[in-house]
Amino acid sequence: MGFDLGHTISSLSKLALRTKRRLDNNRSKNNESSFQIICQEFNNNKLIKKYEGYTQNKNFKVGLNGRTVYIYDHEENELAKFQDVPYMYRGKFIPNTNILVVKSTSGWLLFYDLDKLELMKKIKFSNMGSQDENFDITYDGKYLYNIEAPKTSTRTQLTKYDLKTLKPITTSFHNMDKIFLKYVEIYNDSIYLFGFVRNDEGVKDYNFIGLYKEVEEKAGIQGLKKLNEELSNRINQYKVCEDYGFTQKSLKYRNLEKIEDLEIITLKDAYNSIVTKRKLNEKVNLEEKEFFNWLDEILSKKLPDDIKAINFNLYEDVDNKWSIELVGTSTFDENSSDWACSEIYTTRETPYILVKKSDWKTIEKIFTSFLKNYLDVGKHSNVLKKYCGIGIGFVDGDLSIIYKR
Length: 405
Fold this sequence. Notes:
The chain has 405 residues and is of the alpha+beta class. It has 2 domains: 6-30 and 285-404, no CATH class; 34-275, Lipocalin, CATH 2.40.128. 24% of the residues lie in helices and 35% in strands. The strands form 5 sheets. Strands 1, 18, 19, 20, 21, 22 and 23 form a 7-stranded mixed beta sheet that branches. The protein is globular.
C-alpha cells in the first residue's frame, strides 16, 4: 500500500493497534448510516407500507392512520391501539425512553407511556384545524419544539415544552405576522427553521432557512437565508416524507416509487451549503453527508487539551463493511509515523461504518476525499485545523498526511 504523500507506519505497530481495537471493542457491526437503515426498514417492514405515518425505537414499532395509533413489538405483534383524538399521523419517541409523542393536525399533542401502554397526557394547543407544521425533540430528551397556529392558520408560533413537566415554557414569533414557520429541525445543539416571509401586503415574498437562537428571554432567527423555489420544493419533499416516517404512502403522494428515489436534503445541510457557498448537488453524496454528520457530532464536543495531532484509522470489517475511527495522539512527527500509535483519545466505540462492495484502495481514496472536503467546508473544520497534523490510513498499512499546520 502507499500514497505519494505517504509516511510509512510499521506494519507491526499497526497490526498491534488493530489487535488492541478488536480486544477492546466488541462493538456491533450494525451501525450503518441512518438512511441506509431507513431504506432497509422500508423494503422489509410491512407497517411502513401499511400506515400513513410510522415511527419506531428499539422496543416498539408504531403505525399511525389518523383515527388510530397502533403499537407493536419488534416482531410486529399488535400490543395496543389508541383512539384519543382524530387526525393522528405523526409521532416521535423521546430519546432513550419508551414515551411516544403524537401530533394531531386537529391541534393536539399526545404523550403515551408505552411501558404501561397508556396515555399520559394530551395538550390542546390550537382550536384551528390543519396543524400541518412539524415538531422536533432535543437529543437529550429535555425539550420539544412545536410549530403551532393557535388562533389563525395564517400565523404560526414556536412553542418550547419541558418534557419533564409536559408543560409549555416559552413561545416565539407569536407577534410576528411576516414570519410563517413550516419545519423545525434539531441537530445536536443547533435548531434550524424553515418557512417563508410575507411582504407588507401580507403576501408570500420568499422562502427562508435560518438558525433559531435563544438568549435568556429573547429568541429569534440568526443568519436568515433566502431560498429559491426550486431548492425550497426539494427541501419540502424530503421533510414531509421524514415527518411521516418515510412511509410508502408519504412517498406515493410525492410521486416517488421507492425510498431510494428520495433526495435527502435536511435543513442543516441546506443551511450549511448556503453559508459555505458550497453547491448542493442534484444527487447528494449520501455517504459523505453521513460521514460529515458523524464527524460533526464528535467535534462538537470538547476533546482532551493534550491532543497534538489527529489520525483516522481505517479497518476492513466483514460483509463489505469498512470502518473509520478518529484518534487523538499526544505527539506528531512527520518523519516518523509511529506518532499515530500514541493514542490518548479514540472514537473506537462509535466508528463510522461504510457499507460498500469495493477494494481497500478505493475505500482509502473515498475516505481521504471525505476528509479533504470536510477540511474545506465542514462545520467544525477549524477544530481539526488547530492540530499539528492529520493523517489517514489502514491500520495494517501506510499512513498519509493530508494536513499540516
